[in-house]
Amino acid sequence: MPVSRLAAAAALLAWPALALGQEVLPARVAQALAAARVPASGVAVLVQEAGASRPLLRVNDGAPMNPASAMKLVTTYAALELLGPAHRWKTEAYLGGPLREGVLEGPLVLRGGGDPRLDMESFWMLLRALRAKGLREVRGDLVLDRGRFEPNGARPGDFDGEAFRPYNVLPDALLVNYRSLRFTFLPSPETGAVRVAVEPRPPALEVVNVLRLSNGVCPEGRAFRDLLQATFEPERPRAIFAGRYPASCGEKHIHVALLAPNDHVAGVFGQLWAETGGAWSGTAREGAAPPGATPFHVHESAPLAELVRDVNKHSNNVMARQMFLALGAGNGPASAPRAAAAVRAWLAQKAIAAPELVIENGAGLSRAERISAASLAALLQAAWRSAVMPEFVASLPIVATDGTMRRRLKSGGLAGRAHIKTGLLADVRAMAGYVLGREGRRLVVVMLANHPNAHQAQEAMDALLTWAYEQ
Description:
30% of the residues lie in helices and 22% in strands. The chain has twelve helices and 22 strands. Strand 9 and strand 10 form a beta hairpin.
């Protein structure tokens, strides 16, 4: 029999098993898991053609698993449908006294609306708008209204003890620049010194730099931060860098959530307001906007369709948590329990039962969150049929191209043909999204690994993506 007929016959023999749903991991996936010492019982997998009713592959797909940042798929898809792609968050400014010849005799009140991306540029634009409307000097306090979010009593270091890491910044209705400072290190081999720059640079912040330039290889990640021997003192506030800095590192950056919320807003406001030519003689304190008052200015965020790209492509935990709370907004302050209830009701309307679902903060930065591969695949199937499908899929990292997938699977036919959200925690690795197969079929692919060696399961996940592409 000719080779082409043998191949066709083999394909026909294999098709019934695929049509009913294969329940054994592909050989390359199983081999990669064995090499990583992750048992098959520690993973859940589901592969299904978009729009089809039966899976091509299913293994432990009903088991509740921690999805890590793959939970952001639930949050962003729910936000796109419940809030709408054009939804914008509003930050309002109120005058707490008379404005005469550019001078405000009283406090300036900023009321946060939960904007997920009120970064330096956005906050600067808000202050520029105040200057353009005639405000030049504030002879009163900066009053910060965070009443749109319900206080939850959590602390930034509760998750893993890393209180100064930006991913641990808690939700805040008036979150300015993710409450983070960017420290830039600039070595000068000619002088043997290392310059440290900070952006933003609150006027009260003290930076003590006794770094010593050295030779050697530049480490990455946590090892680089350890090399700096950094000490952070939010009460003063002060940052001390006392370690070695290899010249081979060149220019490097770290982000630090150093200041308390009020101090951070006050510091950024003081710096940017002075840069615009404004004057301010008060302090920052908690408070509320005047009831029934008309805002002096309203700053609007970028549309949701743009913000979900930041959340999914770069796995931004802080933005995801802000977005999740927006789902729980109602007559009172937004809270995580209200947001979780809104997500469950929305899933029920879509006939996605997900009885195993545990959603704590919507970002996946949680030891408690759970979802099954089957429920996550059902969500991706519903998204593929949704009116917001283009915005949702465009928010996902593209294999070998951008986001958290930019460095993976660069060789081979899969590059640029899959939109995949990743997730990673200690004992957890996850991926979920869409693969455009070699023959033009679009497949939903989900793989969740929960095991002490899960961080070593990337090769197995790449093997599954390749298998799906070849089907």
